[in-house]
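Single-chain item
Fold in C-alpha cell form
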Amino acid sequence: MQSLKLWFAASRPFSFTASIVPVVVGTLIAAPAHFDWLVALLALAGSVFIHAGTNLVNDYYDHVKGADGAGALGPAGFIQRGVVAPKSVLFVGIFCFVAGAGIGLILCALTSWELVWLGLASLLAGFLYTGAPIHLAYIGLGEVTVFVFMGPVMVVGAYFVQLERWDWEPWVASLPIAFLVTAILQANNLRDIEHDREVGKRTVATIVGRTWANREMYALLVAAYVALVVAAAVEALPWFALVALATLPLIRPIFKIVRAGGSPKKLNFALFHTAQLHMRFGAVLAAGLAMNWVYESKW
C-alpha cells in the first residue's frame, strides 16, 4: 500500500483534472442522445492512465536532460530527492501507458475499432512529449501537442465512444478547454523561461521572448471565452454551457501576476491560478451541460 501511495503521488494526481475535464465534457455533450456509464468510466480511466504515464515519463526525461534540477519549482522531485530510481519512474510510466492502452482496446471492443487510431496517437503523443527520440516539449511543439490531445482528441474521443460517430460539434466544443489547458502549460513555461534557456529546452516562451509570451498567455485566456460563445452560437454547445462565463473574473489575477512578472516563485502563482481556472471552468461547463441533459430529457 505504501508503494501504491508513493507512485500515486509521483504521478502528480493534482494534474489529473486536465484529463478528467475534457472526458466529462465530451461525455455530457453526447449524453442527451446516449449515455453508457461503463463506457464513460472506461474512457475516464484510460485518459487518466495515459496522463499519469505522460507525467512519469516526463519526469524521467526531464531528469536525464537536466531540466529538473535541485532548484526546479515544478512538481517533480521524487527522483532528485532519491525517493525513487530514475529507471523505476520510466518503468512505471510505461506500465501506465500499457494500462491505458488495455482500457482503450476494451473500449474498441465495446464500441468501434475506429477508435484505435485515436488511442494510438494519444499514446505516442504522451510518450514522445518528452520521450526519445523526438522530445516534442524540447523543440517548441509542447504547446501544440497539449492543445490538440488534451482538448479536441479527448473531448471527441469521449463523445465517440458514446455515440460511435464522428461529428463536428465536439471538435468546436473542445476549443475552450484546449485554450485553457494550453494556458496552464504556457504559465509553466513563463515561470521556467530562464531555466529552460539554460538547459536548452525550446518552448514557445523561450523562442518568442517574455513580452510576446505574456501576450500569448493573455490571448489563450481570452480565446477560451470567445470560443465558448462561438461554440454556443453555432450550436456546437447548448446555451446552458454559457454558464461557464461566470468564471471570467478569475482571469484577472492571472493577468495581474503575468503583467507584474518577477521571480519564478512569483510566477508560480500564475500557474496555480490558471490550473484552478481550468478546473473551475470545466466544472461549471459540465454543470451547464448536465442541466441541458436534464432539460432535453424532460422534453
